[in-house]
Amino acid sequence: SDINVKDGSTLLLISAGSYFMGSGEGTAPERPRHEVELDEFRISQNPITNAQYHAFVSATGHRIPHLDDPRVERENWDPSSGTPPAGREMHPVVLVSWYDAVEYCRWAGGRLPSECEWERAARGGLHDEPFPWGKRVDRTLANYDSRDGTTPVGKYPSNRFGLNDMAGNVWEWVSDWYDAGYYGVSPKRSPTGPEAGTTKVLRGGAWLLFPEFCRTSYRFRNNPKFRFNLIGFRLATEA
What we know:
Number of helices: 3
Radius of gyration: 17 Å
Low-confidence stretches: none
Shape: globular
Structural class: alpha+beta
Mean pLDDT: 97
Order of helices and strands: EEEEEHHHEEEEE
Distance between the termini: 11 Å
Strand content: 15-25%
Helix content: 10-25%
């Protein structure tokens, strides 16, 4: 592993290789299951935390995560001090748009992972299993189906690549535009999604939501300007 000097992220090397992306049993946008080849890359062991995002905001003057919405009171940063909620420094940052995530990654010297990279990392080498650790998911393995909000990063078991929170806790923005039919036309080598679109891909499920969203192949999406307390991101870099 490698510590990123800019934001302190532990970056894990994911080796080059091929894997099967998608699921033959999944929802329509997950089909067909298809083989893809990727170059090596690095990805942060954890989603980006409030503490890390605070360093970015302090350094750049970027807007703080804050929404005028009573449903996100617990997650809102303090507008007067510009600080994250006390005691939640090690929770994943939320209330960030795709554009916010892209700006952070640029500041940190990296980028968002592609959807293909994200799924390879999430699978942890388990090509035929639906979840990052294998066949099943329960509340000892991931934060989902909860009313209690996010949990600190790394609270649950990591997958075989050493990555944490690839299922549950927060949806994660990836770089690709979303197209439900993309897997039917996706190139085999390093696919990066369609050229354009209206929504960006989200991966991994979230604390409030159903266990089936925690599957490594499940695809969700939202407007890149959308912000809510279910969505964060992680950092990727070239190897």
